[in-house]
Amino acid sequence: MGSCNNTMAVLIMVSLLIVCRVSADLERFEQTTKRDGTLRFLVVGDWGRRGEFNQSQVAFQMGRIGEEMDIDFVVSTGDNFYDNGLKGVEDPNFVDSFTNVYTPKSLQKQWFSVLGNHDYRGDAVAQLSPLLRKIDSRWLCLRSFIVNAEVAELLFVDTSPFVEEYFTNPGDHVYDWRGVYSPKTYTSHLLKDLELALKNSKARWKIVVGHHAIRSVSHHGDTQELVDQLLPILEANDVDLYMNGHDHCLQRISHTKSPIQFLTSGAGSKTWRGDVNTTNEQGLEFFYDGQGFMSVELSPSDVAVVFYDVFGAILHRWTMFKSVLHSIV
């Protein structure tokens, strides 16, 4: 009897270890590419205002460009619902700011979303709930996760818990930190999981998506916590693109120490005209302080990024090439 009890205890301990390890891994989703091996998607951030502040106009142009490109999905860089996230899974703001705004046929694809700081000021857990997917099946929002799209891997990172000010000096704001136990422990585990995923990735292109900017010349500027903690991991693991929102603008900044491109698409609705820090322009390639969005097209040999304004006009185009031979070797 004692032997059976010991065996059962060992089995329980092993099971617990397995559960702990699985829970530490970033959840992974599979996304197929087109027959020619290309991948196309749109990126928009800081949008959820019930169609106001030109959100509906941006959505219309996203639909037009999405149809022209035959996009595979949409990426949201966070601050999905203003001003203070959702109040719960039944909050009408979800339908008013998402379902009823992004109506074009080309946008009826999967949306991969991260949380922004404004989302944490409401019921953050509600945005993660699968119940929202029953209301609108396009919606998928998790704290951190991976999308494996064959030619590329997109790693979505929950950046709000990195920002110390939200914990030490929140002002009048109340944040929903359920699930973010100790922020230092939370971010430490997240960074380890991210580093492991990047090291094991065999994707042609490595893309990391977060809400907060690593580099920005706009209102919020660089996020020092990400510069110190996240950027070294991106540099060490050959990440190609870092995409974010948070600053309500469009911008591209080249990293001076690596090929990483910092791409901000946070202009889905309300923007900040003239809010630019001219003392922080190192590596700045493009900046626009109006509303708009971004498109990305990837093939094994190249990536093309295009920024559009609220009228769908092209503001900036950038392309980078990789040697296919190099990847085979």
Automatic annotation (TrEMBL):
Binds 2 iron ions per subunit. Residues 1-24 form the signal peptide. SUPFAM superfamilies: Metallo-dependent phosphatases. Its cofactor is Fe cation. InterPro entries: Acid_PPase (IPR024927), Calcineurin-like_PHP (IPR004843), Metallo-depent_PP-like (IPR029052), Metallophosphoesterase_PAP (IPR051558). Keywords: Glycoprotein, Hydrolase, Iron, Metal-binding, Secreted, Signal, Zinc. Pfam families: Metallophos (PF00149). Its main location: secreted. Residues 39-249 form the Calcineurin-like phosphoesterase domain. It comes from Salvia splendens. Its EC number is 3.1.3.2. GO terms for cellular component: extracellular region. This is Purple acid phosphatase. It is found in: Secreted. GO terms for molecular function: acid phosphatase activity; metal ion binding. Gene3D superfamilies: 3.60.21.10.
